[in-house]
Design goal:
With 447 residues, this protein is mainly β. It folds into four domains: 3-176, Sandwich (Immunoglobulin-like); 185-257, Sandwich (Immunoglobulin-like), CATH 2.60.40; 269-350, Immunoglobulins (Immunoglobulin-like); 355-447, Dockerin domain (Type 1 dockerin domain). The chain has six helices and 28 strands. It has helices at residues 3-17, 75-78, 80-83, 371-382, 391-394, 405-415, and strands spanning 26-29, 31-34, 39-48, 54-60, 66-73, 88-92, 100-106, 119-131, 140-146, 157-160, 163-165, 168-170, 172-176, 185-187, 195-199, 208-213, 216-222, 227-231, 237-245, 248-249, 253-257, 269-279, 283-291, 298-303, 306-312, 317-323, 329-336, 342-350. It is rod-shaped and about 155 Å long. Mean pLDDT is 90; it is low at 1-23.
Length: 447
């Protein structure tokens, strides 16, 4: 009979020759978490109400996932016999009726018996396994205490004072770890909405993926997802991604991020408003100009509170037409920031009033164009004749100024077959180019 059989029978014989005692004694198989393709250790402990002189047990496992590498003495057994350990510690890593392992232990053979004292959670052995590289992440592989391994079968028994104690048992397991995604990165953060794109890489195909912001679950995605759009918190908080496989979550992969700070642009300034033309019978053309560095998303132009134009954010001017009116109109120019908020608003007013009717060249306002108008212009310019009733009528060449060129122009027209004065001529009408400072206070010949 070989050594293993001898001591196995010795333990079994001792068990059979003594009376079975049932008490609060327990054999506990622990659990471990291990990555596929790695090695792992599982602790076996006992709760015993009296000193233990020997024990044996068998534990089965899934042979497709776990390969036993050996069994080490635990913390409690290593202290026996002055620190040299139990005197008999026999392991069988490939017993009959496996896969599984068998361990049989006798603490001391000598006359001075050293035993494992009464206690709880006392480590008697450490099981070493190799985990298959194809093990499914998130799976749990049970380690079950059994009495069916070996030939003859090995019992689960404590030897207490020469008496066999058959403990209760608690199974253990080797849990296959779920690897986490890579550390997520943040891109395309929108300063206005605080939305950002989170990206990561998956080391395996998960069943699902969870995204958390500041610890709160915000999205559950398909197991193949590698990006998500999230709303960043105002202040920097954790943005975490975890994979779920076989109902088991991986550790979180996290980064710290907050919403980008929005800095409003400088307001628009220096608004000027002017009329650029006065078209008889039609109305006026206006020009609005302003300055501002932006960036703006758009510029809104409103007339008497009604939006009339939406311009690009880079615009610095606006033009348009106004009808003749006896009352002024109010313009507002509003800058809108890139988030849709109002930066500031500037206002101005314009009056598009149809000018008085007159005949150009009739400087003395007597209803006809002749040499008397030349004399009237010269008298105004050089003879102290006083301000003409209608300065626009005396601006005979329509250059916006009253000077010697005006009587010369009319003399050429009257006596040298020169050009006629610009409109309104020869009939009453309004100044179609009324952009100069000259005005027509009164012109009696015209209605």
């Amino acid at each position: 009979m070989n050594t293993r059989r001898f001591f196995t029978f010795a333990v079994l014989s001792l068990s059979l020759l003594t009376t079975s005692i049932h008490a609060q004694n327990v054999l506990n198989v622990g659990e471990s978490i291990s990555a596929a393709g790695s090695n792992t250790q599982v602790s076996v402990t006992i709760d015993n109400t009296a000193p233990v002189l020997g024990f044996s047990f068998g534990i089965t496992h899934d042979g497709a996932v776990l390969t036993p590498l050996g069994i080490d003495q635990g913390a409690a057994t290593s202290l026996l016999n002055g620190g040299s350990g139990a005197e008999y510690f026999f392991e069988d890593l490939a017993p009959a009726n496996g896969p599984g392992v068998i361990l049989a232990c006798i603490t001391t053979f000598g006359s001075s018996l050293d035993s494992i004292p009464a206690g709880t959670g006392q480590e008697i052995a450490v099981l070493n396994y190799s985990v298959s590289s194809t093990a499914s992440p998130g799976s749990s592989n049970p380690l079950n205490p059994v009495t069916t391994l070996g030939n003859p079968a090995t019992n689960i028994v404590f030897t207490v004072g020469g008496v066999s104690v058959f403990p209760a048992t608690n199974a253990g397991a080797v849990n296959i770890a779920v690897p986490p995604p890579t550390t997520p990165s943040i891109s395309s953060a929108d300063v206005c909405t605080c939305e950002a794109v989170v990206t990561w890489t998956n080391p395996i195909n998960y069943n699902s993926i969870e995204v958390r912001v500041a610890g709160a679950l915000v999205q559950t995605l398909a197991g193949t997802a590698t990006s998500a759009t999230v709303t960043l918190p105002v202040s920097a908080e954790s943005i975490c991604v975890r994979g779920i496989s076989n109902g088991t979550a991986s550790p979180d992969a996290c980064t710290i991020e907050g919403c980008p700070v929005f800095i409003p642009p400088a307001p628009i300034a220096n608004l000027t408003c002017e009329l650029t033309s006065n078209v008889p019978g039609t109305g006026c053309e206006y020009l609005l100009t302003w300055s501002g560095a932006g960036p703006y998303s758009q510029i809104n132009v409103s007339l008497d509170g009604v939006l009339v134009d939406t311009l690009a954010g880079t615009a610095t001017s606006a033009t348009g037409a106004l009808p003749f009116s006896t009352t002024g109109v109010n313009f507002t120019v509003e800058a809108i920031d890139i988030c849709g908020g109002s930066v500031n608003t500037l206002a101005c007013s314009l009056l598009c009033e149809e000018g008085p009717t007159f005949v150009r060249g009739d400087c003395n306002a007597d209803g006809s164009n002749n040499i008397a108008d030349v004399v009237a212009a010269l008298t105004f310019l050089f003879g102290g004749g006083g301000t003409p009733l209608c300065a626009d009528a005396c601006d005979i060449n329509d250059d916006g100024n009253l000077d010697i060129s005006d009587p010369v122009f009319l003399l050429s027209n009257l006596f040298s077959n020169g050009n006629n004065p610009p409109a309104p001529y020869p009939n009453c009408g309004v100044d179609g180019t009324d952009t100069d400072p000259l005005d027509c206070v009164n012109f009696p010949p015209c209605p």
